[in-house]
Specification:
141 residues, globular, 5 strands, alpha+beta
Length: 141
């Protein structure tokens, strides 16, 4: 099982449709495959300049550590020094706040979506909506 460009684009389209329906601020969305390689990325008009990098950091941290970025936030609250050290190993490309959601098909993690632009909980909700609209399972924790 692998994450195709068509599936990644479908997830992004649905995530952004959810965001527009919920009247969220402009978003950046990044989809990585199971190897953390970029599959697709989009940023809405008006999104602030750092959002794509933040979205990538949410996604990268989630896929590299095998847990949603909400779980990474919980871990950071409990073990701040550990997560800080891991972020150093990751070259600073780990953002431990909600919005990085693993994409599961059957029993396999096939990729991850990272979203940034609104409140982290809203970013995560858009990510989950995009994944579920594609008929896949979202893993936030």
């Amino acid at each position: 099982m692998s994450l195709t460009l068509a599936t990644a684009n479908s997830i992004i389209t649905s995530a952004l449709a959810h965001a527009r329906g919920a009247n969220l601020k402009p978003l950046s969305v990044v989809v990585l495959d199971a190897r953390a390689a970029l599959v697709a990325a989009q940023s809405e008009d008006g999104v602030s300049i750092m959002r794509a990098a933040i979205a990538h950091g949410k996604a990268n941290g989630a896929i590299q550590l095998g847990m949603g970025s909400r779980a990474l936030m919980d871990r950071a609250e409990q073990q701040a020094y550990f997560v800080s050290a891991i972020n150093g190993v990751a070259g600073g490309d780990l953002v431990p706040v909600p919005g990085g959601v693993l994409i599961k098909e059957g029993d396999a993690i096939i990729g991850v979506i990272g979203i940034s632009g609104d409140a982290s909980d809203n970013d995560e909700a858009a990510a989950v909506a995009g994944i579920e609209a594609a008929g896949l399972t979202a893993i936030t924790g």
